[in-house]
Amino acid sequence: MNSPIKLSNTILLYLLTLCIIAKAQNLNNPNYLHHFCDDTTTSTTTYKDNLNTLLSSLASNATSNSIGFFNASAGLEPDDVYGLFFCRGDLSTEVCQNCVANATKDIVQRRCPTQKVALIWYDECFLRYSNKTMFSTMDRDPNYTLWNTQNVAVDADFNRILVDTIGPAVYRAANMPAGAKKFEATKANYTTEDKYLYVLVQCTPDLSSGDCHKCLLAAYSGLQICCNEKRGGRILFPSCIVNFEMYLNYNETYVEAAAMAPSPVTQGEKGSSKKTWIIIGATLSTIVGVLLFSSFAYTMWRRKKREELQNSQVIELLDMEGRTIEDDCSNEIVFGEVKSHDSLLIQLDVVLKATNQYSNENKLGQGGFGPVYKGVMEDGKEIAVKRLSRTSGQGLREFMNEVNLIARLQHRNLVKLLGCCLEKNEKLLVYEYMPNKSLDVFLFDSAMRVQLDWQRRLSIINGIARGLLYLHEDSRLRIIHRDLKASNILLDYEMNPKISDFGMARIFGGNHSEANTNRIVGTYGYMAPEYAMEGLSSVKSDVFSFGVLMLEIISGKRNGGFHLSEEGKSLLNFAWKLWSEGKGLELMDSLLEKSSVATEVLKCIHIGLLCVQEDPVDRPTMSSVVVMLAGDNLKFPIPSKPAFSVGRIVAEEATSSNQRVGSANEVTLSNVLPR
């Protein structure tokens, strides 16, 4: 009875495998993973010309390159440029050629149009260039990490099999002869049900055997940190890659054919086969020994430091020193900087006591990265504790971003961070307690909304505007919040608004005010179209979100869920239609009829429509918004028709209109591949 079922599952798995391979070999659409651009710009025309010459050389040499690797340089000092590409070792020349051709265009036309140093990873190939030579040099920075967000039931056997599989693969790849691909892909059965673990490792062929070996072991050590108990993980270094999955992640046909191909063996090589296996065994034993010893030594070191330091959490933070908060963030913010905020560190036992061991009675709600609890400190101070879920692969970066960022911001309309805690795998953010929760609790509930009369709503609008103005212009950092929405506006005892949740915020240095990012974060319905569709973020992106929020506050309706079936309009377009027809007051929440002032309502609708215009240039700055809100008898520009509703169009493909954007299930250090 079970045979047909097993056969059916086998067929489905086989078809899935074919689909994965077909996707990997799609000649027209190489699978983009990540890119990096440094801060130096191509200031001279000569350098740009040399770069174009180099990229043309790389593209042309991908057409007949048998090992999928080529490096070259162009120009003379000080405008010389160096570059290389290497393709995954199991793919055809045609796939390699197409990927490199795409990379040479994508990197300069879209990803890093003005930078001197850049690199880009695809699933099929990797390309980099710089004004400094990188040939035959092992580089581990910048790097990029991906993992599967799903856990696997891991036991000692799985870890042993993983080590047993990666160890020989690392050895074989590192010891490929000169001029050959330093690539190895293999699989191992880890259950009694024909379930396989798939491993792929590769170095650039210009590395020495020793450097390749070091690079791959370093990458694997990184996987041990990031991807323990995960169903798959990948680390991309400039000089090597390591990837393990529980699905087929390479071209098995190529790998099997390569394994069966005869290789010329001399008599001396035959005599040394036994020695080779001894070396493989020794390498494997060394890997296991190093990992076990490192784990033991690290544990003992942490324990000793915890005993020596009053605040043990500094260790957790120092472990991450030097890693940037966000792949597209200013270099000013680094993990290690939290060391300067020692006063913010709170002991775990203090938080546990304050929240009564995270009791259900103290639970305030569920946030994007975990639950939020109310607590009371020994001195009677009320706190709110955001507890990062241990299963969240997305929140570590946002956690560190928020600690480093909000600790340096002080404004009456920003929520105050009291401290943080990193002990025993807990990651906690401790804020001042907001008794009235968030704005959406009142605004979108028919019973609660009664408490928000017009003066209260106007006060909330003004408070949010002042908070954003501080972030954009008045603080010593230029900050884009990137996730402004009703649920991120908290209300204190007097219903004063406070902007919260800076996990997605982005900092700009110097005079920069706009950037392009491949990592889109935020909430559908509030995102500016240029950000949602092209990744272009600026202060005007926040202005758009503020405009959406203003219209929601006035109407009492969600933009993300608003839809008139008979007209098919979003809240933004509906508001613009009413305003342009002289019927603006019909947008107003009917509960405001007695408390509202018509001129104030119409003025706020006008300002909101100015904020949600499609062209960012047409939107006012927050300083202008604050002036318009405060002034009377001012002449405002005439708004154009709002941008399309990102929320309603895109959300049709999502499971939730409040879903965060980016790759599915974003992770701490990267975008996760669809799995």
Count of distinct strands: 21
Instruction: Please tell me the overall pLDDT.
Output: 77
Strand content: 15-25%
The biggest sheet, with number of strands, parallel, antiparallel or mixed sense and barrel status, is: 5 strands, antiparallel
What key phrases describe this protein's structure?
single chain; 675 residues; alpha+beta; Killer Toxin P4, Chain A; Phosphorylase Kinase, domain 1; 4 domains; five-stranded antiparallel beta sheet; 19 helices; 21 strands; 38% helix; 16% strand; disordered N terminus; disordered C terminus
Describe the structure.
There is one protein chain. Strand 9 and strand 10 form a beta hairpin. This protein has helices at residues 2-24, 45-61, 93-111, 156-174, 209-226, 252-260, 267-271, 273-308, 313-318, 348-354, 395-406, 439-443, 454-474, 529-534, 539-555, 571-580, 598-611, 622-630, 646-650; strands spanning 32-37, 69-74, 81-87, 118-122, 125-130, 144-147, 182-189, 196-203, 232-236, 240-245, 363-367, 370-376, 382-387, 417-423, 426-432, 478-480, 489-491, 497-499, 506-508, 514-516, 536-538. It is built from 19 helices and 21 strands. It is globular and about 85 Å long. With 675 residues, it is α+β, with helices and mostly antiparallel strands.
